[in-house]
Structure formats: C-alpha cells, structure tokens
Amino acid sequence: MDQKVSVDLSGAPQTMLATLYLKALDADFARPILGDRYAKEAAARLDYDFTDIGITAKWAPLITVRTAQYDIWARQFLAVHPRCTVIHLGCGMDSRVFRLDPGPDVRWYDVDYPEVIALRQQVFGSRPGYQLLPASATDMSWLDQIPADGPALLLAEGISMYLTADEGAALLSRFVDRFGSGELQIDFYSRLAIRSQKGHTLVRRTGSKLFWGVDSPQDVLDRVPGIRLLIAVTLFDASTFRGAPRGFRMAGRLSRIAPPLRRTLQYHRYAFGPVS
Ligand SMILES: C[S@@+](CC[C@H](N)C(=O)[O-])C[C@H]1O[C@@H](n2cnc3c(N)ncnc32)[C@H](O)[C@@H]1O
C-alpha cells in the first residue's frame, strides 16, 4: 500500500480539504450526486484528520451539486471545442481532468497555490496534455505561460470568494483579453454570505477570509467587459440539485420565499468572443 502523504495547510489552501472530503463521502453514498472515485482514493492517501475542519457528510450536497453542475457545463464546452485550452483555477484536489477525460487536442492546466500543487503531485498521476501550474491567481504572470491560441475555458470553482472584487474582475478581464474566445464558468457567494462569514465553520477552522460577493450576473457583467451571460443558477436551481436529499429539497422550496437566501450560492457561465 502507498505511504500516506502528510498535509500541512492553513487558510484558503486548507479549504480544499473540505471539498475533497465531501466528494469522497459522497462517493460512498447509496445515491451519490457526483460519485467521484478519484476523490475517495485521494482522501484515503492523505494523512489528515478530516474531522479537524468540522465538516460532516450531511453537507456533501453543498459541494457535489456544484461540482457535478460544472462537470456538465465543462463537458458541453469540450464537446463543442474538442481543440481548446482549459484552465482550472483553484483546482485544489479536484479530479475533474480525470473525471472528464478530455480528448487528445485539449490542453488542460490545473492552477493553485504551490503548496496545493505539491500535494496534488504526490497523490494524482499525470496524463498527456495535462500540466500543473503552481501560482497565486492574483499574480497573473502564470497566464503568460499558457499559449493563447484557440478557445479557452476558465473554470473557477470555489475560488472567487477568496479574491477581492478588484482582483477577481482584473483576472477575468485579463483572461478574456488574452484568449479572445471561450467561456468563464465560475461560482459566487452572495454579499450576504460574505457578510455572514463568521458563521461559517470552515472559515473559522481554517482562518480563511472571504471577500468577493456577487448578488447577480449584472455585478460581473458591469466589471468584466466583453462577456455575455449564458446561464446563472443558484444551488437550488442547478440541474444536479434534483439528486439532493429531501432536507435540501425542502430548504430549496422554502428559499423561494426568501430570495436573499436562495441566491447565497450561485453558479455562473459566461461566453466571450465571436458568437458561434
Ligand atoms: C474551497 S477550495 C475549492 C477547491 C476545488 N476547486 C474544489 O471545488 O474542490 C478553494 C481553492 O482555491 C484556492 N485558492 C484560493 N485563493 C487562491 C489564489 N489567490 N490563487 C490560487 N489558488 C487559490 C485554494 O488554495 C483552494 O485550493
């Protein structure tokens, strides 16, 4: 059996242990939403007590609904653009490149802080067309390392809230300018969620800080020139939410009378460049 890999993370990088763990737990459910066996194997490789971050199985749908929704959208992009570049920003330990198994003409980059990438290297294998980029999203020189030919997908799941609004908007604008055509698939917390961050167990346990809150796609459209909205859904409207357990579905129904609660977690998808 492979030796366990030790983990020493704090702040925003540590939060990806929670998303990994919840995906790993989901993989063992009788009715998984994501069913990510890679997450299960990766979590088992880590020498880490996941109970330290205060996350339990009942919260798994909060992550797996989102990840499964972005898998669907990313697959759709890959089907239309079999020759493209995918930049998976704030990848954490997510195994999307293995789940989606893109074709030979796709260049795929997983980008995260160096300590996260170092952990990935010890746990996941490599594959053709796949590269790891250790970098902070806000130091955008990493973008210059990626050839800017052909359409590009920026997939940024669970990272926008760790950036300030100015950092996030600058990054999205730079991406759009550099690649000229493609999509941004990115999720947001609402402003209310950002304001109430002291109540988030994960934020408290990791010592991370949340900044950028968005209440509607218009907030993003106003800041990032050249993009157009394809679709925006909340956790409760995502197609993958149908698989959530009863308690979540009841919360979804109740949230219809409380729009600020309904929009706490939002998944956005934008296009840029020529309309095809
Ligand atoms: C909540 S985790 C999400 C991980 C993964 N996307 C998922 O859904 O499982 C947030 C991730 O964003 C990364 N992150 C936050 N701020 C970042 C930054 N400025 N540059 C690079 N990565 C960042 C963290 O290191 C962490 O891996």
Question: What is the topology?
Answer:
Layout: E1 5-6, H1 12-27, H2 37-45, E2 46-47, H3 60-80, E3 84-89, H4 96-100, E4 106-112, H5 114-123, E5 130-134, E6 152-156, H6 165-179, E7 182-189, H7 191-195, H8 201-206, H9 217-221, E8 227-234, H10 246-254, H11 259-262, E9 265-272
Parallel strand pairs: 1-2, 3-4, 3-6, 4-5, 6-7
Antiparallel strand pairs: 7-9, 8-9
Helix pairs in contact: 1-2, 1-3
Bound molecules: S-adenosylmethionine.
The site of S-adenosylmethionine has 20 residues, from helix 1.
Strand content: 15-25%
Please compute the radius of gyration using only Cα atoms.
Answer: 18 Å
Task: Report the biggest beta sheet as strand number plus sense, adding barrel if it closes.
Answer: 7 strands, mixed
Query: For the largest beta sheet, what order do the strands appear in spatially?
Result: 5-4-3-6-7-9-8
